[in-house]
UniProtKB/TrEMBL annotation:
GO molecular function, one term: tRNA pseudouridine(55) synthase activity
The keyword Metal-binding appears for this protein: no
Domain called tRNA pseudouridylate synthase B C-terminal: residue spans: 209-263
GO biological process: mRNA pseudouridine synthesis; tRNA pseudouridine synthesis
Protein name: tRNA pseudouridine synthase B
Domain Pseudouridine synthase II N-terminal: 61-208
Keyword Isomerase annotated: yes
Gene label: truB
UniProt signal peptide: none
Keywords: Isomerase, tRNA processing
Domain of life: Bacteria
Active site: 76
Amino acid sequence: MPFCGPIACSATWGRARTKTNREYFGLSDAPRKRARRDLSGWLVFNKPYDMSSTEAVGKLRWLFGAKKAGHAGTLDPLATGVLPIAFGEATKTVPAVQDGTKVYHFDIVWGAATATDDTEGEVIATSDIRPDHAAIAAVLPRFRGVITQIPPAFSAIRIGGERAYDLARAGEKLDMPPRQVEIDALEIVTHTEARTRLSATCSKGTYVRALARDIAEALGTRGHVGALHRARVGGFTDADAISLDAVEAVEGPARDALLLPVAAGLAELPEIVIDARQAVTLRLGNPVLLTGRDAPVQLDAAWASLKGEAVALGMVENGQFKPRRVILPSG
């Protein structure tokens, strides 16, 4: 019979198996889930090609061990560039960032239209016409200001409760509802006979693939997006963007130091500076009266700050700041 000392064992005649200490105390040897922590701030992620926005959030949430994370504005897997990732209290400010100005750099490949209006889809129409620089420059003013777009069928818009891209992949013919968007700027960056790179400054909801398709059709040809890069979302730009390699290269406090404060996402909104007493009132969900010669009387959207730290998102009505979302203090 085998000897059963400090480490317990089980035995049968002629055969023994020693139990591990974890088994003895009833503990599982299965890998334990990584502990999640309260972490707040923004990571301006430089999303690589062929990674979805959802995959990016999942990867970075795991790397930072954050309890809560989200992104401010979906970027197609085939697009690169600025994808703001919000952690913790910063997720409350995501709508403010999503509503901010967007800047895209994109290539129009001339001579072929595709089912998806980018390189993923099959070619559905072709043209031998290759517009020159002058022709393109002449047509661009038609696409500045408030314009009407018909979004691509392969998009995340919901039709009867279903995602349009799911219906399109199932072979359904879709009647996509038109929408109005605003293009603040649209300029040629580079041009060759085969493709042209443009830069667009636009509002939330603009489909660059639809813009490329419509520009090509206005020039009497066909075209699709051959490359797409987002250079700005709200106050975040390429200059702030950090690659996945840079995040993985550091750990602990050095990794946390890559995060920007919650307030960094609110750069495009009016800031209302408050005192400590008012901060307590706002964090209880109550309005505060704004005093002083320059105090605003009416604002549709603003944020309140205490020593540069975000306290609340809200509006100013009749001289009172009224909180809509309260931001808990860091630490």
